[in-house]
Amino acid sequence: MTIDTGAGSRATSPAGAARALDLLDGPVTDTTLRRYLEGIPGVDAVGLEQRAGGLGTRSIKTTSKAWALDRIIELVDLTTLEGADTPGKVRSLVAKALNPDPSDATCPRVAAVCVYGDLVGTAVEALGASHAPRARAAGHGPGIAVAAVATAFPSGRASLAIKLADVADAVAAGADEIDMVIDRGAFLSGRYSQVFDEIVAVKDACRRPDGDDAHLKVILEVGELSTYDAVRRASWLSILAGADFIKTSTGKVPRAASLPMTLLMLEVVRDWYQMTGEQVGVKPAGGIRTSKDAIKYLVTVAETAGEEWLQPHLFRFGASSLLNDVLLQRQKISTGHYSGADYVTID
């Protein structure tokens, strides 16, 4: 199937991008996308922040907290995205993903490790039989996925050909998930069809001949979109183009994930589900460092999209230091006291 972009080109469309044809009155162009996106009601900022504030004050019982801490671990994309990353650092990250707390065999594993594309092969090799496709094939559960940031992360400032090559390299190396960044300049300039076409093309590049396609997370970079209205429109645009997840941030700008922004995105995926029956995931990333904050997000997910979203295929935390705090809190519940600073590894 193809989608007419209205600009003389035709972009290959995976099934997800066909979503747009059912909602737009005409071909996918800047005009039709603008008409649709700008027709979405504006965000009541005061109401949104009040709802987020109320959800953030909920308290949970100790027994529920133990469950919540384990669930947070199971929803973590354990991440290293530094220019100084080495194969050795990635292997250490994988070791922690496989066995977060060596002193406690009941501690669950994380959902995924997230690395730059050139280190995907290292992560896949280090995971071995625990890599998600191998674990599923052997009947050992979902395993741990490998996520790769791509499309000229974090800026997104590159030609489409380079972005697609970036994705293709990561998928060929074994990436199970691709975290792409949208062109924020194009979006803020109103070039909605350009952003749409890039997401469609990246989704297509996530395909594999065996049908075990990589899942696509679309990073909005909410700190650069700035307004709630822009984030809502970008969320809808990403879903229309075929995103499996919408993600708040790269973690590379000062304003990253926040509870109100995440609540807003959860409301979008809830509304999309109610309208179409299709489930899309949400991933807040950047700045979530403590168990206390992460639990607020769990409550917000359950109260907004529903408890069904508290699963790795529908919700993730993009995090590096969060896991350490969760492990310390788990140990406190288990023993009644906090361990010293050397109880967890320094990432």
Description of the molecule:
With 347 residues, this protein is α/β, with parallel strands linked by helices. 46% of the residues lie in helices and 12% in strands. It has one domain (45-343): TIM Barrel. The protein has helices spanning 18-23, 30-37, 45-55, 62-74, 87-98, 120-127, 132-137, 160-172, 184-188, 192-205, 222-225, 228-241, 259-276, 291-304, 322-335, and strands spanning 2-4, 10-12, 76-79, 112-116, 145-150, 177-181, 215-219, 245-247, 281-283, 317-319. The model is unreliable at 1-16 (pLDDT under 50). It has 15 helices and 10 strands. It is globular.
Compose a concise summary of this entry.
With 347 residues, the chain is α/β, with parallel strands linked by helices. It has helices spanning 18-23, 30-37, 45-55, 62-74, 87-98, 120-127, 132-137, 160-172, 184-188, 192-205, 222-225, 228-241, 259-276, 291-304, 322-335; strands spanning 2-4, 10-12, 76-79, 112-116, 145-150, 177-181, 215-219, 245-247, 281-283, 317-319.
